[in-house]
Amino acid sequence: MSEKNNKKKKKNSQMIIRINDEERAQFIALCDEMDTSAAREVRHFIREFIAKHGDK
């Protein structure tokens, strides 16, 4: 495979969401405890959601 095919897709877009301060703090704390990032978990959720609901 070429080097170009091995690279992950570039993250070139941003999504801004509004959530409750307390929920945000809890989410960030849980991500820290699980040694992950909030962004990684949100991306994971989005990919799973698309996989589950994308072909309907």
Task: Summarize the model shown.
The chain is mainly alpha-helical and 56 residues long. It has helices spanning 3-6, 21-33, 38-53. The termini are far apart.
Task: Characterize the structure shown.
This protein has 3 helices and no strands. The chain has helices spanning 3-6, 21-33, 38-53. By secondary structure, it is mainly alpha-helical. It has a domain at 19-56. The model has no long low-confidence stretch (mean pLDDT 89). The termini are far apart.
The parts where pLDDT drops under 50 for at least 5 residues are none
Rg, nearest Å = 15 Å
Morphology call: globular
Structural class: mainly alpha
Using brief descriptors, characterize the structure shown:
single chain, mainly alpha, 59% helix
Topology at a glance:
Blueprint: H1 3-6, H2 21-33, H3 38-53
